[in-house]
Amino acid sequence: MKTLLCVLAALLLITGCESQTRNDTPNNTADSADQDNTAGSANQDNTAGSADQDNAEAPVPEPEETGLSIHVKKEQIHEGSLLLIDREHAVPPGGEGEPAVNLYEHKELRKGFGLLDNTVRLSPDLTEKFAKMVVDAAKVGIDHFLISSGYRDEAEQNKLHKEMGDDRAMPAGHSEHNLGLSLDIGSSLEEMSEAPEGKWLAENAWKYGFIQRYPEDKTAITGIMYEPWHFRYVGLPHSAVMKEQDLTLEQYLAELKEHSISTTSGGRAYEIYYYPISADGNIQVPVTGSCEIDGNNEDGVIVTVDTGPEGGAK
Ligand SMILES: [Zn+2]
Predict the structure, then answer these.
(1) CA 224–ligand 1 middle distance (angstroms)
(2) Which residues form the signal peptide (predicted)?
(3) Could you give the 3-state DSSP secondary structure of residue 145?
(4) In the chain, where the domains are located
């Protein structure tokens, strides 16, 4: 939802996420643009005459394109589904994304789960993602889910921080609940650490793009106590990698700074890269495909490229 499709960014630069496949139709602006590879020249000099000439005979072989040129704006560091929110990294202005709604008042959004009380708010988009997950859990008899907390604005977080103290609650702007991509999930049967709902989520949430954000054995890394109820949406394929490699979001973002990650998800192959934002904002990615850009909320972006069907030739 908040992930920017870099196919759009790439179109502005005219190289395009799918730049390996060339389309030789007349008026194909991509042809002239690819040669110049600048946004400025792309819209100039694209006369029909020259296009016709270019396409009149068998095309002259051109140097093979080996990657993707994208342009990233500085503010994209603070946009997307992978933003790190902790004591050092606050929710950026406007980072809450799609506005949250009161789920008690929006009965149509409550599919397969209850609410702890009538104040729970969450964006319709995240609610839908959560509902998809719990509807699948119900198919195997796990069906006592409830949401105990969703989106919290800064005033609510401030109140909570004062009531619970600095050890138990984050200051305003530093809770994932202020970002709008997290929720606390409960079970009406028993505590989440024991409940079938908690166990099912711990094993399966990654398939739906969610991660258990504060695991029991990672408190030294997250700085947050074990919270079997707190889930964060990061999206696929990221959640799959984090689950498979047993990484928290902190560890995942740090690992991407060390090396790129190749993975598969839903029958597709992905290459995942971290890039610091340079002064000119230009990034050269070594593979092609449709891609997404997510900021890390610190100093750069994660570029996720869908390179095609799993096992297919690139
Ligand atoms: Zn929480």
Answers:
(1) 10
(2) 1-19
(3) strand
(4) 1-13+69-82+238-314, 21-64, 95-233
Q: How far is the CA of 275 from the centre of ligand 1 (A)?
A: 29
Specify the CATH class of 95-233 in words: alpha beta
Are 205 and 133 within 8 A, CB to CB? Answer: yes
Q: What is the pLDDT of residue 63?
A: 54
Tokens at residue 253, please? 């973002």
Query: What is the rounded radius of gyration, in angstroms, for the C-alpha atoms of the chain?
Result: 22
Of all helices (H) and strands (E), which one includes residue 154? helix 154-164
Q: Give me the residues paired with residue 223 across strands.
A: none
Q: What is the pLDDT of residues 142-151, one digit of tens each?
A: 999 999 999 9
* Six-digit token string for 7: 């196919």
pTM above 0.85, yes or no: no
Which segments within 39-96 are labelled E, that is strand? 68-71
Give the whole-angstrom CA distance, residue 237 versus residue 276.
21
Out of 128, 227, 250, 298, pick the active-site residue: 227
Nearest to 144 by CA among 212, 200, 67: 200
Look up 310 and say whether it is catalytic: no
How far from chain centre, in Å, is Cα 306?
14
The three-class DSSP label of residue 211 is strand
All residue ranges of the chain with pLDDT < 50 are: 1-5, 7-56
